[in-house]
Amino acid sequence: MSIERLARRGxxxxxxxPSGAGKTTISRRLLEAEPDMRMSISATTRPKRPRExxxxxxxxxxxxxxxAMVERHEFLEHASVxxxxxxxxxxxxxxxxxAGRDVLFDVDWQGTQQLAGHAPxxxxxxxxxxxxxRELERRLYERAQDSEEVVRQRMxxxxxxxxxxxxxxxxxxxxxxxxxxxQVRAILTAERLKRDRQTxxxxxxxxxxxxx
Length: 212
Prior knowledge:
This protein has helices at residues 23-33, 63-71, 90-98, 109-118, 133-143, 148-162, 177-192, 201-210, and strands at residues 12-16, 37-39, 43-44, 59-60, 75-81, 84-89, 102-105, 123-129, 170-173. The strands form two sheets. It has a five-stranded parallel sheet, sandwiched between helices. Strands 4-3-6-5 form a four-stranded mixed sheet. 43% of the residues lie in helices and 19% in strands. The chain has 212 residues and is of the alpha/beta class. The protein has a domain at 7-40 and 101-207: P-loop containing nucleotide triphosphate hydrolases (Rossmann fold). The protein contains eight helices and nine strands.
């Protein structure tokens, strides 16, 4: 029996950043590289964008449906962003953690605080900073998803988001996607090896001692 095969509880990995700082690209690359990780699919009241797929990108629900889910305590966290509501359903996340699978979250600092309140022992949080304000603005315009007004709103929101960096476990500046991905994977490896997450460790050590 090797140490890599010890049973463990999954973890909740949060990547937060201002829009345009690179968390979406890093998240996509991380999911491709880590077969034991899945994305937490958020429910949202915003309209579906071109090429988005129901159940893969988001769970698109009405305002009334979202309110009912809040009333039934079905979210680990939820918030309003730019006039639309977003929330992380509780059931799929808890099932994944119990099965030893890690769950990736793309939420802001408010969502991270709510997750920490629900499951502090399962949470690992990372805040990603852009290299500069000018580079952040360039990235927002380059992706051509939003109007100029929305870009201005996102830049204004970024200033507030960045002030919450102290609330996160890990911080790095996204100068290069490959380097940033390597840093996230290093954090993930270390967190997976924490004693309390390795639920099979006690049994392994017992059998190990029997053979000595």
